[in-house]
# Entry
Amino acid sequence: MSGTTAWLIRGAKVLAEDGWDDGAVLAVVAGRIAYRGDLRALPRRLEVAGTEVGRQSLEEIQAEGGYLCPGFVDIHVHGGGGADVMDASPGALRQIARTHARHGTVALLATTVSAPYEHVRRVMEAVQETSDGLDEGSEILGVHLEGPHLSPRRAGAQNPEYLTPPDPRELEALMERFPGLLAMVTLAPELDGASELIELLHRSGVVPAVGHSDATYEQAVEAFQHGAQHAVHTFNGMNPLHHRAPGVPGAVITTRPVTAELIADGFHVHPGVARLLWQVKGPDRLVLVTDAMRATDLPDGRYELGGLEVEVHAGAARLAGSETLAGSTLTLERAVRWMANEVGVPLADAVRLASQNPARRLGLGDRLGSLEVGKDGSVVLLDGELRVRLTLHQGWVLYDGQGSEYDEAEAERSQDALGDGPAAAGGLGAEPEAEPSASVLARMEHEEEL
# Structure
């Protein structure tokens, strides 16, 4: 089901500023939240952005329990459903957007891997073409450039062939050609010229992020002082934390304003270390990301990432023939569930790590990340097992619990060059999902009491 209308969602615990509100309803009109509160106090008429509707005109969604949350925001996602950002096509981007919308993500940053700038420009052209007219999947907020200015010592699954020293001229040209499209750039701060590049990005309103780095503690702290604001997949793609050489992780932990990404899939970081990061960064500075690659929502098998062969086994993506993790098959739905169930983070806070914090990191907290009146009507409904049963983006129904929304033909096209990869593009991801329930959308006439 797709389309936008005026909605009234009832029967769920609604995430408010101070926790879960068991008795609240939520109304979405003209793509924005028009009301949150007691059903008995719902006004007879609701007006948002010049659109006025009577309460009898609201289409009702019976949640039948569960948790109504702000839609998730993923600031580090490479692919999904058989498609990759580096495919540099609107079709691939739509496939990724549809795939992650099924799991509660309402907005994302299309994230690159290290590649020549000519290829990066093709990606940005595709994003520019796609972001203006996407109404069937997650909103593409912009581009996260992960590389190519990374440390060869901490390349991880980044193709070392494409790693280069920082070049402000290339990035200036990119920002001039695609104004406002570049949202974040990950780089290694110990490289020559990195400080100048960090300052350029900071002045330009782009988030400079530290990642794939072998920097000392002192070098990383200096980068944060020059304007770096964010750490990419903390503890992964960086030197380890040591009591005599704290390195990048030590600088991230001890520099309070810096936000820290976490890939909460049970492969990248032990639950105890995730708990440590949660306790240090608290509810405001920790950001859940997926780092998802094209195998997300597909069966185990052989895939490609940045020109490198990847093998997915039991949901873990690794460079072929090695133990090096190569992105993930994670969704934010599963990341929130893992943080709540395995790490012990209160559910309300786990949700905020995937919604409010990434939205604020991008400067979009005025419209995304919480269920306040006037913000985007972008919400996700989780059932009692913390599985997504409904995704709305600005009032559009992106997913309503009925089957798969991704394009199998696009997934097969993306896999054409991979030889004997997975035969079916419609399989589930690493963690088997429950069978889809009947649609949670219950359209009915309002009771007279409304």
